[in-house]
Amino acid sequence: MLKVENLNKTFHTDAGDVHAVKKVSFSANHGEMVAIIGASGSGKSTLLALLGLLDAPDEGSIVIDDVELANLDSAGRTRFRSRGVGFVFQQFNLIPNLSAKENIKLALEFAHWPKEDRDARADAMLNMVGLDTTKSDRRPAKLSGGEQQRVAIARAFAAQPQLILADEPTGSLDRSTGQKIVELLRSAATQQQATVLVVTHDEKVAQKADRRLEIEDGVLRELA
């Protein structure tokens, strides 16, 4: 379970302080997909960076399965992020000179997955996202946008992280493909029992989630 309490983040600039995240509190269960919506500059990216341990909050608590993360030092954040958090990005962020399967195996290497098990695990993850063996040896440039995002999802879930952060995962895809990707995220969340947070500006994507949260001027609230 993810539990966030009173999370605050302020950036100090020449133009003054920017209160990007203000006393954010919420929780999400394993196997649950939660959508976070908000306008540009609302605090979505900052919140995602805090939850993904890419930045540290000024105040507040981030707990995953009874482990407090907010106060970890840089090395501790890196260790937990490599194993406990998976990322899915709008632009896929696959390594272009590696095949689909190699992209997944590299993520497993970073997570210190047993070397002898990485090949089978990568195959299993490609199968989970509906890519057959004819696609596993292709580099990203030889895959469609939807196929690349499937690889990105397989990579994100590969090391069995507790938390998946998906940042506009359908933003570079047509609507039909985007809907398939959202359903795939939901299915993978259930299968892997991970908590999935999807940041999106697309209300139709948000409606596919189990719950919807909205952030505005750094303040988070739950939508009915």
Taken as a percent bin, the fraction of beta residues is: 25-35%
Low-confidence stretches: none
Total number of helical segments? Answer: 8
- Give the distance, in angstroms, between the N- and C-terminal Cα atoms: 21 Å
The biggest beta sheet is recorded as: 6 strands, mixed
Shape: globular
| Mean of all residue-level pLDDT scores | 93
From the alpha carbons, calculate the radius of gyration and give it in angstroms.
17 Å
Order of strands across the widest beta sheet?
A: 6-7-8-3-9-10
Task: Kindly list the characteristics that best describe this protein.
single chain, 8 helices, 6-stranded mixed β-sheet, 29% strand, 224 residues, alpha/beta
